[in-house]
Specification:
Elements: E1 18-21, E2 24-26, E3 32-36, H1 43-53, E4 60-62, H2 80-93, E5 97-100, H3 107-113, E6 116-119, H4 127-133, E7 140-143, H5 150-162, E8 168-172, H6 188-197, E9 202-204, H7 206-210, H8 213-225, E10 230-234, H9 252-268
Bound molecules: phosphoenolpyruvate and manganese (II) ion.
The site of phosphoenolpyruvate (PEP) has 10 residues, from loops.
Length: about 290
């Protein structure tokens, strides 16, 4: 990886810490889990998600307001309305939020409402977008392209770094293969390799990798055992009703149980799971029955 001037590890213990909020960072001893629906669908949905996940070992929420859909006829996301919902939940529950930015024109709005800007797989080599994210004062979650090599992935991060933003977290989310039993193939070797060749935190998205909810938990445990610094996982109050990626969505209970099951695995690789957020009062109108 000769050309990765900024992303390359300079010595074996060289590790960047990327701050998500005052008390949550990627790359240290805490395992950081981001969870939530594929798409922001309503206020009620996001309040229910926050209420059920906050303080349960999940440190940040996800939810797409701008969605890169295969078909132009599929729901494209709530746009700014979705960002406002994320903002509201973020301040009410004091929990950071991560959401996707698909184009340069969306950067200001996304950066105003979110704590971290996600670049999706389909945009991993949108070089103009990557350059523009270099001047944003918020961390970037860069997902591996559908068929990107490890080198191409690292060089995409290099675009953001070389344009002035040192806060990049890499996300392995599975790559295309001949086999369509799983949606993609989680490249666990890439997680280990990226940890060895770069100083950037590396997280794993098991949901888009396997595409089937019953495979998410075991693959997540493997990712943690392999040394991932964090996770991004899809879940929904009513998984089968998700407007996108329903087949891979966990229920909120499954999500919490999964994090619970990670504790011994995390401990075995020297990671803690923080229960930050405990004690947050639910919004009265969205109290669970
Ligand atoms: C997502 O996170 O919902 C998403 C679209 O992911 P990816 O870009 O990895 O396909
Ligand atoms: Mn999704």
């Amino acid at each position: 990886m000769n050309n990765a001037k900024l992303a390359a590890k300079s010595h074996p213990t060289h590790q960047s810490i990327v701050k998500l909020s005052a008390d949550i960072s990627f790359g240290g001893t805490e395992l950081v889990t981001i969870a939530g629906p594929c798409t922001v669908e309503s206020r009620e949905q996001m309040h229910t998600v926050a209420q059920n996940l906050s303080g349960k070992g999940i440190q940040a929420l996800r939810g797409g307001a701008y969605k890169p859909r295969t078909s132009p006829y599929s729901f494209q996301g709530m746009g700014e309305g979705g960002l406002e919902i994320l903002s509201e939940v973020r301040s009410h529950y004091n929990i950071p939020v991560v959401t996707e930015v698909m184009s340069i024109s969306q950067i200001d709005a996304v950066a105003k409402h979110a704590d971290m800007l996600q670049v999706g797989s389909r945009n991993m080599q949108n070089f103009d977008l990557l350059k523009a994210l270099g001047s944003v004062g918020k961390p970037v979650l860069l997902k591996r392209g559908l068929a990107a090599t490890i080198e191409e992935f690292v060089m995409a991060a290099e675009y953001v770094l070389s344009h002035g933003n040192p806060n990049v977290v890499l996300c392995e989310r599975g790559i295309r293969s001949f086999d369509n039993y799983t949606r993609n193939v989680l490249d666990i070797g890439a997680v280990a390799a990226l940890k060895q060749i770069t100083h950037l935190p590396v997280i794993v998205d098991p949901s888009h990798a396997v595409g089937k909810r019953e495979l998410v938990a075991p693959v997540t445990r493997a990712a943690v055992a392999c040394g991932a610094d964090g996770l991004i996982i899809e879940c929904h109050p009513e998984p089968e009703k998700s407007v996108s990626d329903a087949r891979q969505a966990l229920s909120l209970t499954e999500m919490v149980n999964l994090v619970e099951s990670l504790k011994p695995v995390a401990a075995s690789v020297g990671r803690n799971i923080s229960t930050i957020g405990v004690g947050v009062e639910p919004t009265p109108m969205y109290c669970a029955a």
